[in-house]
């Protein structure tokens, strides 16, 4: 009796979590096996896998799925390439410079997805800052088309999710003792080889964590592809939005959401396996 | 080791200085080290000794002066081209590599062929008595073993110079004494010129051929441990080297002749009095080594009358803390002595006149030649 008392106190919190967090997920999964009643917003009776079949059969959705994976993978790679030097700078920096960089990194995280995307429109538009600069430098005569293209969307996604890569990297890189790098260079490793043989392998946990975060965020992103893709780039996020808010086919939108959830769940499991593999190799050798 | 012509010293630190912004960490440090020497850079924390080691290794850049190895200037040469082995205080092993991979790292960087590098790895691990540990991971080793891997890793590249940064500070007291001997014996076997940084005078004195005592970014004195102990160049060196530390007190000439500690007159031995007279000062700082003091009967010529404050039993020896007026004085006496005075009782201490150190009361420099 006594041992169950603490659990009793936890009950309200558990109940609240169940209602506001788990219930919508359960409803989502339930709805994905429904169809819409003809000429109505209500769901028809009976459970069916019709939505899933449609997803596989309709090449529009399959293409969007593949495109989203591609975009997310590219975004992950680019955030890693851009994020590593930035994270290193923050991790090894000191005092005011470090604080300032870290604050700059956090800005996009706290001001939501829309604001940065609108800013990117100003930067990337035909008369925007980037094109203006390129023309001024004589590198191009006509404006490069960023908006409504895959490139523009990827740039937006990289900008939006860079902090998700940088923060875990800063965490692992700042725990890496400087002596270890110094030891490597005193043993004859050039800076490049110090990176390849020492820093990167030791930063692996941070790289995996950052990659999972950026990939999931890019996969589920909606605002950035919508605003920068200008409706021309269909990703899973924008397609789900169309189905839910424009077509009003909530069951099918649910199906899309469930697929995203499963995909991200798989990515998480894979990365955890990878992490465990790294750890085991480190121990076994 | 082959003899090097005297004209070209092996390692030459020539007027090296280093400042971080406003703080001067090293001021015009010059040291020359013959081949095969074990040199200790000794000093309290913040004296610049670790910075000097980093500059030699190329992990830090000096703001002035030069470092030369066999006559070749190392200035501006990156650490990875210097062939200088460094053993870090934290050992800095690569946690994602096995012991063998750690030791092989430097050889991989030099692209040695497989057979040669395998032989060198085995040889280096044998040297530090870790023959069977090659496949272990660093996390599976004790602190002492990790340190030996770090030493093996540095020696495997056959460095021109071996640098040790506080090698014993992360070991427990028992291990420290045995590792001290191990490192010294290893040095004698390998013969690589070694520079060790330490804040522990006992370590420096017991391991090194040459000791450079540093304080506030300067080398105060460099010499053999014996020379440093017997003839300290400054008051600081006299107080820093020796254990337990020497008692440093102000001694003033009395108006009527003779000498006093504050208000307390001291009838010293004639030999010592002559030394003091020759110096012709009104005030000096006198340094008395506790191990060169004797407990004597009242009225013995040259004895200091003091009041016992406390005593520490050290097993075999006893360290007495006594007061002479405002000054404190320590004496190391036989631990088995019976009938020792109690705290508060008078004691009479006779310093060995030969071992008395005399320094300038103002600038702390050694006074008699």
From TrEMBL, chain A:
First-listed, main subcellular location of the protein, grouped into a coarse class: membrane
Localization terms from the record: Cell membrane
Key words of the record: Cell membrane, Membrane, Transmembrane, Transmembrane helix, Transport
Gene3D superfamilies cross-referenced by the UniProt entry: MetI-like (1.10.3720.10)
Topology relative to the membrane: Multi-pass membrane protein
Top-level lineage group: Bacteria
Spans through the membrane: 60-87, 99-124, 144-170, 198-222, 250-272
Residue ranges of domain ABC transmembrane type-1 in the record: 65-271
InterPro entries, alphabetized: MetI-like, MetI-like_sf
Signal peptide extent: none
Gene Ontology cellular component list: plasma membrane
Any one Gene Ontology BP term: transmembrane transport
Family classification: Belongs to the binding-protein-dependent transport system permease family. CysTW subfamily.
Protein name in UniProt: ABC-type spermidine/putrescine transport system permease subunit I
From TrEMBL, chain B:
Classification via InterPro entries: AAA+_ATPase (IPR003593), ABC_transporter-like_ATP-bd (IPR003439), ABC_transporter-like_CS (IPR017871), ABC_transpr_MalK/UgpC-like (IPR047641), Mo/tungstate-bd_C_term_dom (IPR008995), NA-bd_OB-fold (IPR012340), P-loop_NTPase (IPR027417), Transp-assoc_OB_typ2 (IPR013611)
A Gene Ontology cellular-component term: ATP-binding cassette (ABC) transporter complex, substrate-binding subunit-containing
UniProt keywords, alphabetically: ATP-binding, Cell membrane, Membrane, Nucleotide-binding, Translocase, Transport
SUPFAM superfamilies cross-referenced by the UniProt entry: MOP-like, P-loop containing nucleoside triphosphate hydrolases
GO molecular function: ATP binding; ATP hydrolysis activity; transmembrane transporter activity
Domain ABC transporter span(s) in chain numbering: 11-241
Record Pfam families: ABC_tran, TOBE_2
GO biological process: quaternary ammonium group transport
Family named by the database record: Belongs to the ABC transporter superfamily.
Protein's name according to its UniProt entry: ABC-type Fe3+/spermidine/putrescine transport system ATPase subunit
Organism: Kaistia hirudinis
Lineage of producing organism: Bacteria, Pseudomonadati, Pseudomonadota, Alphaproteobacteria, Hyphomicrobiales
């Amino acid at each position: 009796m006594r041992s169950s008392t603490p659990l009793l106190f936890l009950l309200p919190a558990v109940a609240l979590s169940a209602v506001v967090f788990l219930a919508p997920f359960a409803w989502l999964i339930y709805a994905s096996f429904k169809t819409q009643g003809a000429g109505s917003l209500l769901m028809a009776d009976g459970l069916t896998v019709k939505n899933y079949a449609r997803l596989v059969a309709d090449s529009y959705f399959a293409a969007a799925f593949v495109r989203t994976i591609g975009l997310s993978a590219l975004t992950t790679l680019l955030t890693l390439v851009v994020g590593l030097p930035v994270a290193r700078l923050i991790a090894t920096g000191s005092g005011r410079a470090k604080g300032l960089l870290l604050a700059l990194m956090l800005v996009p995280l706290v001001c939501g997805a829309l604001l940065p995307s609108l800013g990117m429109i100003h930067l990337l538009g035909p008369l925007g800052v980037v094109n203006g600069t390129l023309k001024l430098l004589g590198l191009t005569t006509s404006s490069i088309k960023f908006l409504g293209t895959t490139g523009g969307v990827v740039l937006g996604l990289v900008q939006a999710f860079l902090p998700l890569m940088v923060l875990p990297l800063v965490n692992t890189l700042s725990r890496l003792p400087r002596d270890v790098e110094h030891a490597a260079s005193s043993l004859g490793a050039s800076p490049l080889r110090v990176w390849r043989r020492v820093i990167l392998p030791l930063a692996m946990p941070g790289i995996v964590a950052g990659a999972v975060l950026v990939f999931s965020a890019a996969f589920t992103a909606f605002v950035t592809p919508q605003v920068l893709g200008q409706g021309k780039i269909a990703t899973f996020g924008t397609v789900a939005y169309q189905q839910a808010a424009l077509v009003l086919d909530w069951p099918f939108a649910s199906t899309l959401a469930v697929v995203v959830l499963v995909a991200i769940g798989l990515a998480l499991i894979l990365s955890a396996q990878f992490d465990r593999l790294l750890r085991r190799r480190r121990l076994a050798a | 080791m082959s003899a090097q012509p005297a004209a070209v010293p092996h390692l030459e630190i020539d007027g090296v200085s280093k400042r971080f912004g406003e703080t001067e960490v090293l001021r015009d440090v010059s040291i020359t080290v013959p081949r095969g020497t074990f040199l200790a850079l000794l000093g309290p924390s913040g004296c610049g000794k670790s910075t000097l080691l980093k500059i030699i290794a190329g992990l830090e850049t000096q703001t002035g002066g030069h470092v030369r190895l066999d006559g070749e200037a190392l200035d501006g040469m990156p650490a990875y081209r210097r062939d200088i082995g460094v053993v870090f205080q934290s050992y800095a092993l690569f946690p994602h590599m096995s012991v063998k991979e750690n030791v092989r790292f430097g050889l991989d960087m030099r692209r040695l062929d497989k057979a040669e590098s395998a032989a060198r790895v085995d040889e280096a691990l044998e040297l530090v008595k870790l023959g069977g540990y090659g496949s272990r991971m660093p996390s599976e080793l004790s602190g002492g073993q990790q340190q030996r891997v770090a030493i093996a890793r540095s020696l495997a590249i056959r460095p021109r110079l071996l640098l040790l940064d506080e090698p014993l500070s992360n070991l427990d007291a028992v291990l420290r004494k045995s590792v001290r001997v191990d490192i010294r014996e290893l040095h004698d076997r390998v013969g690589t010129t070694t520079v060790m940084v330490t804040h522990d005078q006992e370590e420096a004195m017991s391991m090194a051929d040459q000791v450079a005592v540093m304080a506030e970014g300067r080398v105060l004195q460099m010499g053999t441990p014996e020379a440093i102990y017997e003839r300290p160049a400054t008051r600081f060196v006299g107080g820093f080297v020796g254990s337990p530390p020497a008692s440093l007190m102000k001694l003033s000439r009395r108006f009527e002749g003779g000498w006093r500690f504050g208000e307390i007159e001291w009838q010293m031995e004639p030999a010592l009095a002559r030394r003091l007279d020759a110096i012709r000062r009104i005030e000096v700082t006198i340094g008395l080594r506790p191990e060169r003091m004797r407990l004597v009967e009242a009225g013995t010529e040259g004895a200091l009358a003091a009041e016992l404050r406390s005593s520490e039993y050290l097993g075999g020896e006893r360290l007495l803390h006594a007061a002479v007026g405002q000054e404190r004085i320590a004496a190391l006496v036989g631990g088995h002595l019976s009938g020792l005075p109690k705290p508060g009782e008078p004691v009479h201490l006779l310093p060995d006149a030969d071992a008395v150190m005399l320094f300038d009361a103002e600038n702390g420099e050694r006074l008699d030649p």
